[in-house]
Amino acid sequence: MIGFVARRAAVSVPRVLARRGYAEVASNSDKLRLSLVLPHDSAVQVVQAASETDERTCPLSAALPSRETLGARVEQIIYSSQDVVQVNLAAESGDLGVLANHVPSVEALKPGVLEVLEGVGESKKWFVSGGFANVHPNNSLTVNAVEAYPLDAFSPEAIRSGLAEAQRVAGGSGTEEEKAEAQIEVQVYEALQAALKA
């Protein structure tokens, strides 16, 4: 009896609900307005601070580009109500692809890639260490990220060595605070490593 009801229910689902698939190109009227904001220090300030502190204070400093490489091109507002086709992000609840007309929601972001599909064949990838994504009912998405860096700005070698060091500290005989910080570093480095391999 349950199988019959399940089959009947599946047949009666309107096809309109299934019309939008992953990375389906939206029409021009189906654009999503994206705002990507770094509410704290800009990446340039973070790199400057990292160069003046040790790796324990800023664990990603070894994997980040140098201050000279970044220059002044990284700003606190990366996107300001810019029309895009889709945004893919790593949320705590799972990977999420946001298109126009998405259900309003608030998502906590985990360390991972934020991919912005600006148009057909136009994609930009950022590594985000955490934050929140707010999907609004008016076809807009606001992302407040703790940190965001272009994915291609990271050195795979520096990530590998940083991960090894963080794993050593997490499994070592340090204080509970040092171990907890190292475990967070391990999560971020592993997410960075996976993002670069993808």
UniProtKB/TrEMBL annotation:
Source organism of this protein record: Rhodotorula taiwanensis
UniProt cross-references to PANTHER family, sorted A to Z: ATP SYNTHASE DELTA/EPSILON CHAIN (PTHR13822), ATP SYNTHASE SUBUNIT DELTA, MITOCHONDRIAL (PTHR13822:SF7)
Location of the F1F0-ATP synthase subunit delta C-terminal domain: 154-194
GO MF: proton-transporting ATP synthase activity, rotational mechanism
Primary localization class, coarse: mitochondrion
Protein family (similarity comment): Belongs to the ATPase epsilon chain family.
Protein location: Mitochondrion inner membrane
Coiled-coil ranges from the UniProt annotation: none
HAMAP family assigned to the protein according to its UniProt record, in alphabetical order: ATP_synth_epsil_bac (MF_00530)
Keywords, in A-Z order: ATP synthesis, CF(1), Hydrogen ion transport, Ion transport, Membrane, Mitochondrion, Mitochondrion inner membrane, Transit peptide, Transport
Entry annotated with the keyword Transferase: no
Name used for this protein in its record: ATP synthase subunit delta, mitochondrial
Top-level taxonomic group: Eukaryota
Domain ATP synthase F1 complex delta/epsilon subunit N-terminal, residue spans: 75-145
Keyword Cell membrane belongs to the record: no
GO cellular component, one term: proton-transporting ATP synthase complex
